[in-house]
Batch of 2 targets.
Target 1
Amino acid sequence: MVPTARRRRTSEGPLALYREKRDFSKTSEPEGAARPVPGHDGAPRRFVVQRHRARRLHYDFRLEIDGVLASWAVPKGPTLDPSVRRAAFHVEDHPLEYFDFEGVIPAGEYGGGDVIVWDLGTWEADEAGEPPDPGTAVRSGELHLDLQGQKLRGRFVLVRTRPDPSGKEQWLLLHKHDEYAVDGWDPEDHPRSVLSGRTNDEVRAEPHRVWHSDLPPDKASVPLPPAAAAKVAAAPATADELGALDLLGHEGIWAIFGRELKVTNLNKVLFPPGPDGAAVTKRDFLRYSAQIAPVLLPYLAGRALNMHRYPDGAGSPGFWHKELPTHAPDWVPRWDNPDAAPGDSRTYLVVDEPAALLWAANFGALEWHAWTSRTEQPNLPTYALVDVDPGDNTSWAELLVLARLHRAALEHLGVEGRPKLTGRRGVQVWIPIAPGPSFSETRAWTEQLSRTIGAVVPQLVSWKWQVGERSGLARLDYTQNAHNKTLVAPYSPRAAPGAPVSAPVEWDELDDPDLRPDAFNIHNVIERLAQKGDLFRPVLQAVQRLPPFR
Ligand SMILES: [Mn+2]
């Protein structure tokens, strides 16, 4: 038996070598459960292939066997080409929690570099002539396997040749001649993660997996929403694109974000003048929409968008419009809600690209309300939301008291939440969570938070839902934590004079008695973004679990 194999089977268990090589205070890789659990009982075995740019690019080919991921480093990567044999080096077993690890291992640490989940799926030991137990097959140096992945499919063979001078076992990986074989197939032609859609470069630029050492190992490596991650990088509108809008007359075709968009009624006033400015025309509104779309995209991508339309402008009543109209251009991204009841809206706009927001803006959607769940898991919220809703008698100072109590409560709980002004009269707090809890669970949690805070200042808060019964007191509204209920998106305009926007703020800004909930509008928020950056970004990055109340 070669040295590596012996070391893997010390009394410290199969992951001893894996752990010995890594400093878990520095790397975001999972440490793995204390005692790996085989736990199959007929469940299909999983495999993962990670594309890992360490000192040298390689692919890590990992098979679930006996409660760990048996692992081979394949420098040139697996292929479907049956005429090619790839060298593969048997390396230390990895914990099962490594299965969906995607992120950056810090430079200087073991394996420092970027990792994507290049392929994953299930596998079975190939029956023909194989011993029934894969662990035994690996130890005997020959494993025949049938992969069902997204990229890799069909019958493969791993066979040991000899130990190389470094002591690593050298193996060969090859694909058999079967119906999945493809001559000339090169893994480098398929560079994106099957989990997030991102390339190694994109993961390196913005790692989207956060390691939470306070959580159990099987829960600690928390991914960010894949579509949001994949599409963060929309380029801003160019000066030429924005200038082209000004050159149009009352209507025309606007080339923007790679699309040709028909825009209409450009000189129509959509927002009456605010206290400090002129009326806002549709042209102004579309210009703002183009400026803000790349910033807003990560909050909208992969989510159904409920449009609050005001075709006659903010001075006239608006209405909810959820169904994507059949006249929308074919390129407009959309999603069919599989749970839609007969007669309900079924096909929703999904702003997966910046031009889609401009289409909605031209359609008269002055306010943008994205779902708090993602289309791939519409019943799993990604935020818990608090809406601090002032009553007629609530002063701004009192509203700030309520907002600050939320800050204190969240700090006490160790939970990250971010405030934003509604652009109307209130303040909201968005609390990002890893998908898992149902809407009723996030609603119950938020209600507990609200009731706890309300008990501190009972003179400020009413629990009556009818406005008329509230005696002018504020409401802490947790009821928006529900399927297909929404709060206005960050940076969305509000249908009010002067085109105020729902602007994210720093918690400290809520100490400022001169702040107003409609302090920012489509004119000054762009400058604010240039100065402060996007203050709401932590709700995309800090994915967490809601702790129990004690
Ligand atoms: Mn590796």
Target 2
Amino acid sequence: MSLPRGHALVCALVVFAGGAAAVGIAVWRYEHRYNEPELPEEYRGVANPLEDDHAARDAGARLFSRNCAPCHGPDADGRGPAAPGLNPPPADFRGGPILRNHSDAFLYWRIAEGKHGTAMPQWDGVLTENERWEVIAFLRSLEPD
Ligand code: HEC
């Protein structure tokens, strides 16, 4: 059976347009997955080179318990021994929206530069770039409560 040429052409066009639309939607969704207007331009799009690296996660867990747990808690739920009295309280990485709502690039920026107006310190100069990514690899491995 042979289709009329015109029909074949229309089919090809429909397939092509459909494919282009799918690619367009995928790109749009990626770009708009996170709404982070405050993220400085130079941090945009940076990705964790240690994603899914188990050794990095373990190293990140150790760094977290030493540096972050006093505020964010040994269980990363925001309830560290230094948390009472802090306003705003330290972020909860178990139940709060931070990990869900933010890209690795955003977490990296926050950890590097801290959060003004809160007790969240700047870690630039304390943790190396690699150590910051290790902590992020650890945070991404946490199960929500
Ligand atoms: C002295 C207490 C303290 C220490 C130590 C600390 N944090 Fe924080 N952190 C805070 C507070 C307070 C906030 C602010 C929460 C808010 O704005 O709701 C915060 C927020 C954050 C956020 C979310 C930022 C945002 O945009 O809301 C991340 C991510 C974070 N901390 C990671 C870390 C990591 C990783 C470490 C260890 C390397 C660390 N923090 C150490 C107190 C601390």
